[in-house]
Amino acid sequence: MDKSSFLMVERGNPYERGDVIPLTKPITVLGRKGQHFDPDIAFDNIFVSRRHAALLYRNGQFSIKDLNSKHGTFVNLQRLEPHDEIPLQHGDTIVLAGDLIVLSFSILSMDETMDMTPIIRQLAAIEAAGGLRLNPFKQELSYGGKVYAFSDKEYKCLEVLVNHQGQFVSKEELKIYVWPERCFEADAVPDVSSEELNALIYRVRKKTRDILNIESIRGKGYILQKQADAQA
Prior knowledge:
Elements: E1 4-11, E2 20-22, E3 27-31, E4 41-42, E5 53-58, E6 61-66, E7 73-75, E8 78-79, E9 85-87, E10 93-96, E11 101-108, H1 117-128, E12 133-135, E13 140-143, E14 146-149, H2 152-163, E15 169-170, H3 171-178, H4 194-208, E16 212-217, E17 221-226, H5 227-231
Parallel strand pairs: 3-4
Antiparallel strand pairs: 1-2, 1-11, 3-5, 5-6, 6-9, 7-8, 7-10, 10-11, 12-13, 13-14, 15-17, 16-17
């Protein structure tokens, strides 16, 4: 492998925005760490599959393959079919699980200077989508010039709902993401009472009621929308 190739992170805990992940192996697996499996690049997100996707290097060319992930692998907004593999080009955007993990693929010769403009434009466009901006390090939500601060549990709850705007999120998914310390078996649902979950949703609703609407769906989960969208 005679190229300097890497992924640049726009979104994807535990990485920070702007982090660079070098690609140094013929096969690099992206996924979520499990009890008996540790992917080459691991993300802390319940919507990422254990073995989500793989980056493959053959004959001087990188490609990406979906490993039958539950919530999908996207390249430049195109979803790959399960086990589908396509070549990657410099500046391609890779998205896992909707838009919870956003990466940019880059490849250049060691004696070249990379033009960052296409990547910066891609990242700015993604960040501006929907007008809602999450800051996982300060645990804040920004919208319309206002900043809303949250506790750790409140932010985790909000993060899942915001990243799935307009989509149903089950109570089980929220419990797994917000209370991972109560999981003692792989993919088990934590022991969280209805009172705890309801109190958490109440606090998040109260802090964001001027901009967000969190709708309860038949006692099974929630759908988040911006107030303007909910009233349309």
